[in-house]
Amino acid sequence: MMNTDFDEISEQRSDEAHAGRERRVAAALRAELRLAMARAAAVWRDCGVEPGDSVAIALASHAETIVACLGVARAGGVAVLVDAACSPAEMEQLRAQGGWRFILAESREGQASAMRDFVLTRAEWRQALETAAPLTGSPATIAA
Questions:
Q1: Which pTM was predicted?
Q2: Three-state secondary structure readout of the chain
Q3: pLDDT-derived band of residue 3, with 50, 70 and 90 as boundaries?
Q4: CATH code of the region 3-143
Q5: What is the pLDDT of residues 51-98, one digit of tens each?
Q6: Which of 6, 37, 52, 69 sits 20 to 30 Å CA-CA off 129?
Q7: Where are the domains of the chain?
């Protein structure tokens, strides 16, 4: 065998090892996302979200927004993405139209007084996620 054959075999093994590592990382990330989604669903259920309820998500963080939305869906609700930069008047108008059960927002500051009772703050959300026991079962089972 020539050196080029050994180099090709070595390169192929390196590529296979790299692909294997990527698959393991992807599997770990999927498992982590599933757990985060199940915890988020449990938080929404503990807050009183029932199947069919609308929940507004108005966060600046894309990762937290995704987890919150997936959690709402897993709890049987409907997530509505709202621009966190909306004015208090716009937020009230959107809530009146959408009938949200809750809004997940950065804080209660800047929210109209009529909206504050519906706000779950980002800090409250994070604290609830830390202590939540994951909601188990399939989305169809959970929503039933």
A1: 0.74
A2: CCHHHHHHHHHHHHHHHHHHHHHHHHHHHHHHHHHHHHHHHHHHHHHCCCCCCEEEEECCCHHHHHHHHHHHHHCCCEEEECCCCCCHHHHHHHHHHHCCCEEEECCCCCCCCCCHHHEEEHHHHHHHHHHCCCCCCCHHHHHC
A3: low
A4: 3.40.50.980
A5: 999 999 999 888 899 999 999 999 999 999 999 888 888 888 888 888
A6: 52
A7: 3-143
